[in-house]
Each structure stands twice: as structure tokens, then as C-alpha cells.
Amino acid sequence: MERLQKVIANSGICSRRKAEELILAGKVTVNGQVVTTLGTKVSDKDIVEVDGIKLMSEEKEYYLLNKPRGIVTTTSDDKNRKTVIDLIATKKRIYPIGRLDYDTTGVLLLTNDGEFANMIMHPKNEIDKVYMAKVEGILTGEAIYQLEHGIIVDNIKMVASKVKIKKVDSKTNHSFVEITIHEGKNHQVKKMFEAVGYHVEKLKREKIAFLTTKGLNSGEYRKLSNKEISKLYVLASKK
Prior knowledge:
The chain is an alpha+beta fold. It has helices at 4-10, 16-24, 114-121, 141-149, 188-195, 226-237; strands spanning 2-3, 28-30, 33-34, 41-42, 48-50, 53-54, 62-67, 95-96, 105-111, 129-136, 151-153, 156-158, 162-169, 174-181, 199-208, 221-223. The protein folds into three domains: 2-54, Structural Genomics Hypothetical 15.5 Kd Protein In mrcA-pckA Intergenic Region, Chain A (Roll); 62-120 and 215-237, Alpha-Beta Plaits (2-Layer Sandwich), CATH 3.30.70.580; 128-208, Alpha-Beta Plaits, CATH 3.30.70.1560.
């Protein structure tokens, strides 16, 4: 089930804001009934019409991008910076699943399938998001314990499912740390390290579940296979 205005926007006929205006103006029907309540949820079995025109279900697309540094993870940018959408050649109204910071690189999924996006993002499904962080300082066992048992950041408890030191450079006073989370809150990994006293200098998302950037240079992308999509749903269903 998805919000009506999102379904209309995903069909490609208008923006989500315009869809909301059309709903409020009584221009939208669901199964023949006028709907004027924003947030109304519909399924792909419902018949949605806008100004008497039936929406056709859009073919779903799924992409894996090796996000470069210096690209914003959004569908548009008011500062006219290049977005991840600009890197992918498609006419569909795709959007990123979650966000990676402007200076963070690595695995990013994009789609026009809301159900799939929610499945990947929802913490209850425990889909691993694995990051490699270069942090200033030598990470202590106490810091690892705190990260894995939960810390309060912005009044929210954030927990890493696994933290592992991969390398320590004593000469430059840096640690290279693999951290796995199941959520995707704004700046989450950086904020978690800051909360235990460490500054993240460099961050890359290495994996989402079993998906990596293998074979993709920075800025390159590929479509997910049907087998990969099915495997992700299977992983989520086991939780």
C-alpha cells in the first residue's frame, strides 16, 4: 500500500505536490469514488483516475549505483548540484532508496518501486548496510561496545549490529572500521562515531545485503537482476 499522491507522482504525469493539489481539488478517483483526503493509501489493484484518465502501472526499474563523492542523493537540488538521478539514463521517475551524504561513496540503490524501497529501508527486515569508515584516532573496545549496544543520538537510540576494526595506522592515528547497521537515519554512521568521540574522515558503503560495487567504477551503475531482487525479498521475509 502506498500513499495516493505518491502513486500519482510515480506514474510520471506530475509532481507529488501537484498530485496533492489535484486530490484536494476533487480531481482524483479511486475505484470510481472521489478521494480528497491526502495520505489515502491504495494498492496496485485499485483503479486510480486523474481527471478521468486512468493511471497505467509503471514498469518497475531497479538500479545499483557506485555513488561518487560530491554528488547529492536526492531527485533534485535547489543549489543546482549534480544528483544521483543525473547519473542514470532512464525516463522513469526513479528515486534513491535512503541517502548517502555528499562526501560518502559506495552502494546506492534506486528504483520506482515503493514497496521494494520500503522493504530495503525498514529496520525490522534487518537488511545489512555495511560501511567502511576511516576515523581519526584508535578505536577502543569500549567504543565498540557502546556502538553495538546502542547510543542515544538526537534523542534516538542507534545501534550497530556489528563493528569490526579492519586496520589501525598508529603513525597517522587512524582506524579503518567496518560497521553494519540496519537503519538509515540522516548522517547516522558519522553521528554514531561522533557520539563515542571519533571523527569520520572518509566513509564508503561497501554493501547492502549481498550487493556490492564489484565491477563498477565510481559513477557507474547497473540494473539489478530478477534473481537479486527476489533474493532480497527472501532475506526480508526471514526476519
